[in-house]
C-alpha cells in the first residue's frame, strides 16, 4: 500500500463538479468519531453544489473533560517525559518524508484547492512550507526548543535555572485561508513544547487539517496527544466560555474583532495573529530595471488567493517618481487574472454586495476614483453566498488620508480590493503619520534600496513582519523567518524556533539550593 492509502479517508480528485470528496470526523479521546448532526449548507465554492459532510458537533462535554484532564505541567517538559521530544522529532522526520511522496503532495494540493480555490502554485506553497517546517524540526530539532539556561547562585550549592515550560491544555482556532499551513505549524508548535491541543479549523476547510492529522498519526504521533473538533463558530465560542478555567492558553488566527472578544472571554490568556491592514511604501529611487518586477510583486501581494491573505497588500503608497510607470503596469497585470486558472476566484467571507458597498463608500471620498476593476466576474457558477469580483484598486488623494475618512480608508477587505495613494516627497510625513495610526501591525514592505529612506520608515513603524529593499513584499513563506504581528503583548508568531518558544511556552525559574550549610550559620537573634 502507498503512504496515501494508509492515512487518507477522502478523495479530492473527483473533479470540481460538486461531488462530495469525503466525510469528516472528530478526534476525541484517541478515537475518530462520527456525529449525529452534519451541516447541510456547505456549498462547493466554484459551483454551489452539495459539498462536504462536516459534523455539526453540539455536545462538547468530552472535549472539555479532556482539557481538564491534561495537567498544567503538560504531556512533557524538560523534567518530565523528556523522551517525547525525541519522539516528536522522529514524527517530523517521517512526516516530511511522506510529504515528499508526489502522490501525497498532489493529494494535499488538490484538497486545499477544493475548499479554498487558488492557483496550483499557491496551494503547492502551503504544502512546501509545511514540509520544510517538518524538516527543520526533525531529529533533535524539537529537543533544542527546550533549551534553557543556568546562572551561578549566591553560595556553593545554589544555582538558578530557566526552563521553557508548557501551558498544558491549550486550544487552537485556525482560519480558512491557509487550511494546511497555519493549523499545521501552530499545532506542531504546541505539541513540541509539551502542550495537549484541542484544535478547530474553519468549518469549511477543516477537512484539510484532519487529513494532515491522520498523516501525523500514521507517522507515529500518539492518537491521544490531541483532540480535533468540527463545529460551528458559536459552538466553539460556547466551549471556550464553558471551559475558560480549564484552557491555559488559546491561540487564535483570524478576525481582529473575534480576537478581541476571545481575549475578553479568556481574560487575556491568548496569543493572536489577527487581521492585517498591511501597507507597502514605494520609495523615491525609481529604476526602469526594476519597474516590471516591482509591479509584478505588488500584483502578487494584493490579489493572490483573491486577496484572502492576512498578509495581503491592503494599501499601496506610491512615490511620485514611480506613479506614471507603475499604475499602467498594475492595471495590465490585474486584468490578466482569470477564473479558469484560479488566479482570481471565490471570496469566501465577503459577498459581492459587501465588497461593492465598501468600494462605493470609498468612492464617496472627494477626489477618489477606481483605478481598475470594480466589476463582477463573468460566466461563472460561484454561489452568491461567496464574492466574485475582479481585482480592484481605488485611488485616494493623499490629502484625504488623515481626515475623518481615515478609518474607512484603512478598513480591511478580505478580498481582491486595495487602496492606492500617490504621494510626493514633501508629503512623506503624511504617509508616516498614517502608518502610525493604522491599528493592525502584521506585515509591511518598504520598497526601496535607499538606506536612508529605509531607515526613516523602518525606524518609525512597528509591523512584526516587515520586508525592506527593492524586492520587498508583504506576503511571504514563514518557514525561513518569523511571521506574526508586533506591538501587542498578545502577538503570536509562527514558523521559527523563536516563534514556537514565545507562543507555546512560558518561562519557569527553578532555584536549586542543596547546601552545604555554612558551618558558621546560627539562628538569627529575634528582636
Explain what this protein looks like in three dimensions.
This protein has 527 residues and is α/β, with parallel strands linked by helices. The protein is 35% helix and 16% strand. The protein has helices at 3-7, 61-69, 83-99, 102-115, 120-136, 141-145, 181-192, 206-218, 233-242, 256-265, 291-303, 320-335, 352-363, 406-409, 428-437, 451-459, 497-504, and strands at residues 26-28, 31-33, 149-152, 158-165, 169-173, 196-200, 227-228, 249-254, 270-274, 278-282, 313-319, 369-372, 392-395, 417-423, 443-447, 465-468, 506-513. It has a seven-stranded mixed beta sheet, with helices on both faces. Strand 13, helix 14 (406-409) and strand 14 (417-423) form a beta-alpha-beta unit. Helix 7 packs across helix 17. It is globular, with a radius of gyration of 25 Å.
List how many beta strands DSSP finds: 17
Strand order of the biggest β-sheet: 12-13-14-11-10-15-16
Strand content: 15-25%
Q: What count of helical segments does DSSP give?
A: 17
Brief overview:
By secondary structure, the chain is an alpha/beta fold. It has helices at residues 3-7, 61-69, 83-99, 102-115, 120-136, 141-145, 181-192, 206-218, 233-242, 256-265, 291-303, 320-335, 352-363, 406-409, 428-437, 451-459, 497-504; strands at residues 26-28, 31-33, 149-152, 158-165, 169-173, 196-200, 227-228, 249-254, 270-274, 278-282, 313-319, 369-372, 392-395, 417-423, 443-447, 465-468, 506-513. 49% of the residues are buried.
Amino acid at each position: 500500500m502507498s503512504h496515501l492509502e494508509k492515512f487518507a479517508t477522502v478523495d479530492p480528485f473527483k473533479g470540481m463538479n460538486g461531488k462530495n470528496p469525503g466525510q469528516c470526523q472528530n478526534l476525541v479521546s484517541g478515537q475518530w468519531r462520527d456525529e449525529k448532526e452534519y451541516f447541510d449548507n456547505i456549498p462547493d465554492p466554484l459551483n454551489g453544489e452539495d459539498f462536504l459532510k462536516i459534523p455539526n458537533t453540539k455536545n462538547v462535554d468530552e472535549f472539555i473533560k479532556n482539557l481538564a484532564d491534561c495537567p498544567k505541567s503538560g504531556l512533557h517538559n524538560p523534567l518530565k517525559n523528556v523522551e517525547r521530544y525525541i519522539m516528536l522529532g522522529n514524527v517530523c522526520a517521517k512526516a516530511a518524508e511522506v510529504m515528499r511522496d508526489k502522490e501525497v503532495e498532489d493529494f494535499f494540493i488538490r484538497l486545499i484547492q477544493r475548499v479554498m480555490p487558488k492557483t496550483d502554485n499557491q496551494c503547492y506553497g502551503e504544502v512546501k512550507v509545511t514540509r520544510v517546517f517538518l524538516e527543520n524540526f526533525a531529529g533533535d530539532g524539537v529537543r533544542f526548543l527546550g533549551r534553557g539556561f543556568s546562572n551561578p547562585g549566591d553560595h556553593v550549592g545554589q544555582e538558578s535555572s530557566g526552563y521553557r515550560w508548557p501551558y498544558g491544555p491549550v486550544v487552537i482556532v485556525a482560519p480558512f485561508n491557509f487550511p494546511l499551513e497555519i493549523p499545521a505549524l501552530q499545532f506542531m508548535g504546541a505539541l513540541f513544547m509539551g502542550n495537549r491541543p484541542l484544535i478547530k479549523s474553519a468549518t469549511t476547510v477543516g477537512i484539510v487539517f484532519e487529513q494532515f492529522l491522520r498523516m501525523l498519526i500514521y507517522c507515529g504521533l500518539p492518537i491521544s496527544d490531541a483532540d480535533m473538533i468540527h463545529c460551528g463558530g458559536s459552538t466553539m465560542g460556547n466551549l471556550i466560555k464553558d471551559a475558560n478555567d480549564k484552557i491555559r492558553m488559546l491561540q487564535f488566527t483570524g478576525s481582529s474583532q473575534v480576537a478581541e472578544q476571545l481575549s475578553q472571554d479568556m481574560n487575556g490568556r491568548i496569543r493572536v495573529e489577527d487581521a492585517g491592514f498591511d501597507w507597502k511604501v514605494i520609495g523615491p529611487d525609481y529604476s526602469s530595471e526594476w519597474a516590471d518586477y516591482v509591479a509584478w510583486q505588488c500584483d502578487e501581494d494584493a490579489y493572490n488567493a483573491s486577496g484572502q491573505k492576512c498578509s495581503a497588500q491592503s494599501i499601496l503608497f506610491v512615490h511620485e517618481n514611480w506613479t506614471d510607470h507603475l499604475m499602467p503596469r498594475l492595471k495590465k497585470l490585474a486584468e490578466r487574472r482569470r477564473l479558469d486558472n484560479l488566479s482570481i476566484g471565490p471570496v469566501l467571507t465577503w459577498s459581492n454586495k459587501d465588497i461593492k458597498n465598501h468600494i462605493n463608500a470609498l468612492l464617496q471620498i472627494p477626489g477618489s476614483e477606481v483605478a481598475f476593476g470594480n466589476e463582477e466576474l463573468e460566466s461563472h457558477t460561484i454561489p452568491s453566498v461567496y464574492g466574485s469580483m475582479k481585482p480592484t484598486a481605488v485611488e485616494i488623494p493623499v490629502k484625504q488620508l488623515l481626515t475623518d475618512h481615515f478609518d474607512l480608508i484603512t478598513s480591511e477587505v478580505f478580498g481582491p480590493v486595495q487602496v492606492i495613494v500617490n504621494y510626493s516627497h514633501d508629503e512623506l510625513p503624511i504617509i508616516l503619520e498614517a502608518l502610525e495610526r493604522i491599528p493592525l501591525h502584521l506585515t509591511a514592505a518598504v520598497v526601496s534600496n535607499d538606506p536612508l529612506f529605509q531607515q526613516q520608515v523602518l525606524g518609525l513603524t512597528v509591523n512584526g513582519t516587515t520586508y525592506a529593499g527593492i524586492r520587498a513584499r508583504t506576503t511571504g513563506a514563514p518557514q525561513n523567518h518569523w511571521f506574526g504581528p508586533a506591538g501587542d503583548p498578545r502577538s503570536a508568531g509562527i514558523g521559527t524556533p523563536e516563534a514556537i518558544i514565545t507562543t507555546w511556552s512560558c518561562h519557569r525559574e527553578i532555584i536549586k539550593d542543596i547546601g552545604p550549610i555554612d558551618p558558621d550559620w546560627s539562628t538569627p537573634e529575634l528582636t
